[in-house]
């Protein structure tokens, strides 16, 4: 036998011996694990713990094709109505790019609702795009600030400081006030496909909203030079999530949470609606972050930037991004 053949033969013998040792070790290890399983009461057919609903994974194996354009439907309703069941009618809206503030070059200059629904088309960027991340600027109809608009003793004409009290029941332009607080609806996550069902936009009535927001702010007067953010926290599956908290930069004057359909000034996190309000934000750009409880304390699961306008409610949803 040559030296090379002898070495190969010895190598083969060594391999056999090594394989035998590994097999013996594996059997011993399995026996040991089996004994530990009996002690630790490990199930014979263990089930994996479901993944964290805020740790989203890309489905790289079957990416969905994205159309060049998508149809968006927004259902505007009266926030005060039960389950947002009353349509908000007589609306006008503009479709704006996220960086175009305050919408000087709208993509669509004038949209009108049909029984409270606004429908329009947005560009997604197609295969090379990431969706439409702009916003919708919504205004309600104007009405005279006469007695019929007063709510809970609040004189509606306080919202029209130039109104002559002698003309409050007449058709005087200085006595006109918006029926709803103006709204900015930010599309986050970006629109990548037709929206079905419609996105719900709960508009706050101008008069009832003054009492609502004052109560939420602990009785403090709402500063008309500042803005408000209503945010909905979502999980990876797009479901509203309980137990979420929110912060903003710059910091809001107060953060409030919805509980069982009502503003609860003492609540410290979202209920299953996932809705919170950030009051008293200065005009301009703001970051809004969402947090969930974790073993090491609250952890940030989502963040987005939006624009704030005076005496306006900005609406946005926050959902975790895929890893």
Distance between the termini: 59 Å
Question: Care to count the β-strands?
Answer: 17
The main β sheet shows up as:
9 strands, mixed
Average of pLDDT: 80
Helix/strand class: alpha+beta
Descriptive overview:
- The structure is a single chain.
- By secondary structure, the protein is of the alpha+beta class.
- The protein is 15% helix and 31% strand.
- The chain is built from two helices and 17 strands.
- It has a nine-stranded mixed β-sheet, with helices on one face. A three-stranded mixed β-sheet has the order 4-1-9, with no helix packed on it. A three-stranded antiparallel β-sheet has the order 11-15-16, with no helix packed on it.
- A hairpin with a 6-residue loop joins strand 15 (284-292) and strand 16.
List keywords for this structure.
single chain, 323 residues, alpha+beta, 9-stranded mixed β-sheet, 3-stranded mixed β-sheet, 2 helices, disordered N terminus
Concise summary:
The chain is of the alpha+beta class.
Topology:
Blueprint: H1 3-40, E1 69-78, E2 92-96, E3 108-112, E4 117-123, E5 135-139, E6 142-144, E7 176-178, E8 183-186, E9 199-203, H2 206-216, E10 227-233, E11 245-249, E12 254-259, E13 262-264, E14 275-281, E15 284-292, E16 299-308, E17 313-318
Parallel strand pairs: 1-9, 8-17, 10-17
Antiparallel strand pairs: 1-4, 2-3, 2-5, 5-8, 6-7, 10-14, 11-15, 12-13, 12-14, 15-16
């Amino acid at each position: 036998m040559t030296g090379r053949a002898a070495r190969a033969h010895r190598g083969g013998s060594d391999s056999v011996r090594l394989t035998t040792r590994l097999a013996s070790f594996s059997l011993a290890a399995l026996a040991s694990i089996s004994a530990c399983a009996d002690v630790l009461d490990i199930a014979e057919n263990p089930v994996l713990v479901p993944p964290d609903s805020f740790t989203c994974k890309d489905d790289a194996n079957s990416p969905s094709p994205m159309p060049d354009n998508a149809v968006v439907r927004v259902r505007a309703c009266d926030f005060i109505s039960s389950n947002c069941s009353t349509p908000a009618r007589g609306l006008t809206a503009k479709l704006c790019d996220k960086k175009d503030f305050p919408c000087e070059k709208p993509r669509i200059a004038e949209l009108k609702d049909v029984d409270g629904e606004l429908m329009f088309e947005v560009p997604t960027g197609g295969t090379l795009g990431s969706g439409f991340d702009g916003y919708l600027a919504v205004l309600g109809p104007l009405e005279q600030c006469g007695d019929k608009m007063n709510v809970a003793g609040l004189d509606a004409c306080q919202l029209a400081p130039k109104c002559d009290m002698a003309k409050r029941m007449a058709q005087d332009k200085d006595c006109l006030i918006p029926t709803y607080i103006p709204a900015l609806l930010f599309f986050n996550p970006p629109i990548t496909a037709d929206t079905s069902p419609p996105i719900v936009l709960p508009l706050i009535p101008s008069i009832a909203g003054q009492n609502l927001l004052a109560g939420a702010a602990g009785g403090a007067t709402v500063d008309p030079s500042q803005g408000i953010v209503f945010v909905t926290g979502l999980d990876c599956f797009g479901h509203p999530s309980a137990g979420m908290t929110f912060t903003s930069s710059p910091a809001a004057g107060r953060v409030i949470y919805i509980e069982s359909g009502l503003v609860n000034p003492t609540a410290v996190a979202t209920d299953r609606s996932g809705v919170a309000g950030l009051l008293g934000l200065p005009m301009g750009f703001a970051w809004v972050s969402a947090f969930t409880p974790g073993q090491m304390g609250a952890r940030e699961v989502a963040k987005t930037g939006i624009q704030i306008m005076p005496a306006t409610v900005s609406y946005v949803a926050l959902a975790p991004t895929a890893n």
